Amino acid sequence: MIRTFRPGDEHALRDIHLASITRVGPLAYNPAQIAAWASKTRDAEEWLEWHDFGDRITIAFTEEGEAAAFTLLEADGHLDMLYCHPDHVRQGHALRLVEEASAFGRAKGLATITTDASELARPVFLAAGYRVEERQDFLLDGVPIHNYAMSKDLMPEPELAA
């Protein structure tokens, strides 16, 4: 099941965010990079602020009803976050959420969705039809790290011939 954020979800999102960074992140990033990235984990109140601001937070749930992954799509078409809990990776949650963001963006009239994908998220975005614009090397709390500027053009779905 996929649904949008409801107040009360903020603690699960914080847990997914931190667990993803600290338990999945080491597959592509070193300990200093993980520590700098984890220091940016959002407080529960920030999730409520994003929701109140109008950003679209979408959550994928397991069959048992446990929050497994989420995305945060800003009104301007920037997909700011995609995180999956380590217990639920490689189960299709991330790809379903990215595809849902595209469908939502298309319905809202967005021409493009952009993102800054981690090394680990890049394959999901590629599978969803995004293209890499450039690798971005930067400092996070003084620690060198990188991600990828990516984008996807949202063309209207082709109509089937009658």
TrEMBL record:
- Stated EC number for the protein is 2.3.1.-
Give this protein's Gene Ontology molecular function annotations: acyltransferase activity, transferring groups other than amino-acyl groups
SUPFAM superfamilies in UniProt: Acyl-CoA N-acyltransferases (Nat)
PROSITE patterns, per this entry?
GNAT
Enzyme category, top tier: transferase
Q: Which Pfam families match?
A: Acetyltransf_10
Instruction: List the residue ranges forming a coiled coil, or say none.
Output: none
The alphabetical list of record keywords is:
Acyltransferase, Transferase
N-acetyltransferase domain ranges (all copies): 1-155
What Gene3D superfamilies would the database entry show? Answer: 3.40.630.30
> Residues of the signal sequence?
none
Q: What is this protein called?
A: Putative acetyltransferase
The record lists the lineage as:
Bacteria, Pseudomonadati, Pseudomonadota, Alphaproteobacteria, Sphingomonadales
